[in-house]
Amino acid sequence: MRLPESGNRSPVITERNRMGNEKSRFLKRDDGTIYDSLTSITWMANDSRLDMDKEVSYAETEEYLKEINEKKFAGYDDWRMPTIHEASSIYDKEKLNKDFKGGDIHLDSIFPPGAATCTWTSSTRGKEAQILFYLNGCAYWYGKEDKTISHAVRLVRRDN
Predict the structure, then answer these.
(1) Could you count the other beta carbons within 10 Å of the beta carbon of residue 48?
(2) pLDDT value for 128
């Protein structure tokens, strides 16, 4: 295991398989989810930008979450917004992926390209919610009621 450089908040696991190739911490499942063996969290492979072909406000994020749980996506109804720490755990400045505009974001390529540049999180303080940007790994506070601010969310659940 390498220690992260500044700006990368999670350790980079560099296990090697018998062939000497780097072994990913992520496991892509057939049900549209990705399991993270480092954090024991399951992520939806798609974020809301990929699913809805638009960015969403915080209120729309809550509606999206409700719909995903009502549909029992991948057989579960306990999906939720990630905490800021969970969201930052998949940021990796050594990895490159493409956002919906073709720009670089720092997510493992196991996640499908075309996602938003950031995710809303469950980390709140009063009327604000925190967003994690996958361009630079930085978190910012935005007003939850501001309808002019639209981003996306990538939902998570913890396997029991």
Answers:
(1) 26
(2) 95
Question: How many beta carbons lie within 10 A of that of residue 82, not counting itself?
Answer: 24
| 136 closest CA partner among 28, 43, 7, 17 | 7
Write the CA distances from 50 to 39, 46, 80, 114, integer angstroms. Answer: 24, 6, 17, 6
Q: How far apart are CA 87 and CA 106, in angstroms?
A: 12
Asked whether the beta carbons of 133 and 118 are under 8 A apart, the reply is: yes
For the entire predicted model, the pTM comes to 0.83
Q: Tell me: the pLDDT tens digits for 13-25?
A: 444 444 555 678 9
Spatial contact of 150 and 63, defined as CB atoms under 8 Å apart:
no
Phi-psi region of 136 (alpha: psi -120 to 50; beta: other; left: phi over 0): alpha
3-class SS at 59? helix
Q: Which two tokens stand for residue 44?
A: 């939806």
Q: Is 107 helix (H, G, I), strand (E, B) or coil?
A: coil
Using CA of residue 99, residue 102, residue 107, residue 111, what is the dihedral sign?
positive
E strand or H helix at 60? helix 58-71
First to last CA, the chain: 26
Cβ(50)–Cβ(135) below 8 Å: no
